[in-house]
Design goal:
PCN-bd_Tpept, alpha+beta, Beta-lactam/transpept, penicillin binding, 4 domains, PBP_dimer, single chain, coiled coil, Beta-lactamase, Penicillin-binding protein 2a (Domain 2), seven-stranded mixed β-sheet, five-stranded antiparallel β-sheet
């Protein structure tokens, strides 16, 4: 018995000893071996970390007007447990549906949400409709809460509704769709998605801060506890080169045309040609960055200004013209036969708008009428492949411009054969971007300097005000043509607009401002690879004032719903509307206004210059330099008489006629197609008496001579025969009104297509 007790005692003691040894080992492991790990876990439990979000940098226009900034936002929270405890399910579902527009079935699911044990949850965010709502909806939620609390108070319940909001911040674009494709947007999580928001995200987003301290079980900071504070670094502020007023002019002018012609897309870009700072850039269709999720078609987010390539048509003729002027190959007074031309070394014929052409005309008239034949001669025959390709490359085509916007594209331009060289001379068979085109026309406007376009004015630190980035707008990529050649090219492009009869760009004429420009219409290709004459891209590009350019602008309309309209009809009026608003806003005075002594503005029409007794060549150059349209009558070498006479105030767009032969030795020229005013001006200069029948343009004339005195009877019709008659060949071109025609190149074997002409 005693032995048994001793054995039990021994076993019990051994067990207790073993247990004690195991306990010691465990304590040693916890405190020594794994001590650091357990200490870190303990510290983590009583240490509280509070993130300090950084504010995203603001984006403003060049004048400091805010285009994008962070603003307070509020997210709606529901507490299903409290809602059910107080019986407010129906009231909250109905109220939130009315305020947020969220589906009632989805709200019911949120309000009735339970955990895996069947208990009602305590906090649920109302996404997406209740996520980061604005101040207006916040006030409505607060009003709903007050009503519910008043209801609970009557029932003597705790004033807890189960409806609450948490304060956050979100990106806000105060001007809505204005400059949307430039700005881009951030998503609801604050992540940059598109535009400058995305491409300059590293500058704009900043770095979040942190506050860390030791706390008790309630989360309150312990007395005398250490606190670590890392301040947030806010994002940099971004100032753009655009002017929101000019941006508004652009978008407003585009909307009217977009509604009328319902094109696939439209693009307009404006720049200061001297600095290549972008003053405005817009595309249609567009989107609202505040509600980007409502945009159904992803194409609405596409920035065509830098991401799209297109066939430019006759706006590309500017390159050919500038190259020919630089090489001293362009003689505005030289005569060529318009109508059609055979590409040397091939069986291919290329045509003007009408295959019969306008007869033998000067190259200057060919520029005004946008004659394809004239530009084939200039580009293919005079410049040749190597020099033409050199000027194409020097003007920046085939390379990205380097603008700060994301997604810029480009295509290489190759001219493998004589037909491609010839058609490229008038903008067919080449592919460019709108921003490349604008950089090229700006080079002509600013004295021949190709510059990098910029949309960033400066980036600054919001805390110090220090500028961290400011592009150098004085930097020149290359001198493409000389200042003299640029000035001469500008004078010819001005005639395209100033000539209110023959100029294809006459619808861009602005009274009081000298405008230079070029229209363009390019037929698109169908799925079978053949031209589809019902679809085209129409455009206008130009700058003003010619004598001191302040703005260059390109307008592109892709596939208007009327197949018979061209760049002169659709795009030129948009240019006119924008520029005629922008120049006065920029403080550029009209040439036809002056200030009186009492500070009032009066009209001061320019007077006709003195041209009599000048050599015809010198008189023409004087008028070109002044941007005045003119026409020579006779074959003499000096000016005998002019109309209107020197010193006579001139009407907007009025032409000066130069008589170079004695009137009794001259026959009355063919006036068919001329306006009544121009016909009367010519006949006055010839000292002929005139009788008129009908209205519109001259359709017939009858000259009689009685007793040595000539009399002319004019018959008028409402429209020009030239504009009324449509040539029916096979490519897209433009007549002098800007309306599209369908004449094309064809080859000896009767095929047509790749060599189609366009204006």
């Amino acid at each position: 018995m005693v032995k048994r007790i001793k054995l039990r005692t021994l076993l019990l003691g051994g067990f207790i000893t073993l247990l004690f040894v195991v306990l010691l080992i465990r304590v040693f492991a916890l405190q020594v071996v794994n001590g650091d790990d357990w200490h870190d876990r303990a510290v983590a439990q009583w240490t509280k970390k509070v993130p300090i979000p950084a504010s995203r940098g603001t984006i403003t226009d060049r004048n400091g007007d805010i285009l994008a900034s962070d603003v307070p936002a509020y997210t709606v929270i529901v507490n299903p447990a409290v809602i059910h405890e107080n019986g407010l399910e129906n009231e909250i579902i109905e109220g939130l549906h009315k305020i947020l527009g969220k589906d009632e079935s989805e709200l019911k699911e949120l309000v009735n949400a339970k955990d895996k044990d069947g208990e009602y949850l305590t906090n649920r965010e109302v996404r997406n409709e209740g996520w980061k709502i604005d101040e207006t909806k916040k006030a409505q939620i607060e009003d709903l809460n007050k009503e519910l609390k008043a209801q609970l108070k009557k029932e003597k319940k705790v004033l807890e509704t189960g409806l609450d909001m948490i304060k956050e911040q979100k990106r806000y674009y105060p001007k809505g769709t204005l400059a949307a494709h430039i700005l881009g947007y951030t998503n609801r999580d604050g992540e940059a998605v598109a535009g400058l928001e995305a491409s300059l995200d590293d500058y704009l987003k900043g770095t979040s801060g942190l506050m860390k301290y030791e706390s008790d079980r309630q989360g309150d900071q312990l007395p005398e506890a250490n606190m670590v504070y890392k301040p947030a670094v806010n994002g940099k502020n971004l100032k753009l080169t655009i002017d929101d007023t000019i941006q508004y002019y652009i978008e407003d002018a585009m909307k009217e045309t977009y509604e009328k012609y319902q094109p696939i897309s439209m693009t307009v870009i404006a720049a200061d040609p001297k600095t290549m700072e972008i003053l405005g850039m817009a595309n249609l269709p567009t989107f609202n960055p505040n509600t980007y999720w409502n945009t159904k078609d992803q194409k609405d987010f596409f920035n065509y200004a830098v991401k799209a390539t297109y066939e430019p048509g006759s706006t590309f003729k500017i390159v050919t013209l500038a190259g020919a002027v630089q090489e001293k190959l362009f003689n505005p007074n030289a005569i060529y036969q318009s109508g059609q031309i055979q590409v040397k070394g091939t069986h291919t014929y290329l045509h003007d708008i009408n295959r019969s052409g306008w007869g033998p005309i000067t190259f200057l008239e060919g520029v005004k009428r946008s004659s394809n034949v004239a530009f084939v001669k200039l580009g293919s025959e005079m410049l040749g492949k190597e020099r033409l390709l050199k000027y194409i490359n020097d003007f920046g085509f085939g390379k990205k411009t380097g603008i700060e916007l994301p997604g810029e594209v480009t295509t290489t331009i190759n001219l493998p054969g004589p037909v491609e060289v010839a058609t490229a001379s008038y903008g067919h068979g080449v592919s460019v971007t709108p921003i490349q085109q604008l950089a090229a026309i700006s080079a002509v406007a600013n004295g021949g300097k190709l510059k990098t376009p910029h949309i960033i004015k400066e980036i600054t630190d919001p805390d110090t005000g220090k500028v961290v980035l400011a592009p150098d707008t004085s930097k020149v990529v290359r001198q493409v043509i000389s200042p003299e050649a640029a000035k001469e090219t500008s004078s010819y492009l001005e005639q395209v607009v100033a000539d209110q009869v023959k100029g294809t760009g006459r619808n861009a004429y602005i009274d009081g401002y000298r405008v230079a420009g070029k229209t363009g219409t390019a037929v698109k290709y169908g799925a079978d690879g053949k031209p589809d004459y019902s679809k085209s891209v129409v455009s206008f590009i130009g700058f003003a004032p010619v004598n001191d350019p302040k703005i260059a602008l390109i307008v592109i309309v892709d596939q208007p719903n009327d197949p018979d309209v061209g760049g002169g009809t659709v795009a030129a009026p948009i240019f006119k509307k924008i520029v005629s608003q922008a120049l006065p806003y920029m403080g550029v005075p009209k040439a036809t206004t002056k200030k009186t002594s009492d500070g009032k503005t009066t009209v001061d029409r320019p007077a006709a210059p003195t041209l009599t007794k000048l050599a015809v060549k010198d008189a023409k150059q004087k008028l070109l330099n002044a941007g005045i349209d003119f026409e020579t009558i006779g074959k003499g070498t000096s000016v005998i008489r002019q109309y209107p006479a020197a010193g006579t105030p001139m009407s907007p767009g009025q032409r000066i006629y130069l008589l170079t032969e004695e009137t009794d030795k001259m026959t009355v020229p063919d006036l068919k197609g001329e306006s009544l005013r121009d016909a009367l001006d010519i006949l006055t200069l010839l000292k002929c008496s005139v009788t008129v029948e009908g209205q519109g343009y001259v359709s017939e004339q009858l000259v009689t001579d009685k007793n040595g005195k000539r009399s002319v009877q004019l018959t008028l019709k409402p429209v020009k025969d030239e504009e009324a008659s449509q040539d029916t060949s096979s490519s897209s071109t433009e007549d002098d009104s800007g309306s599209k025609d369908t004449s094309a190149g064809d080859s000896a074997d009767g095929k047509s297509g790749e060599e189609a002409s366009d204006n």
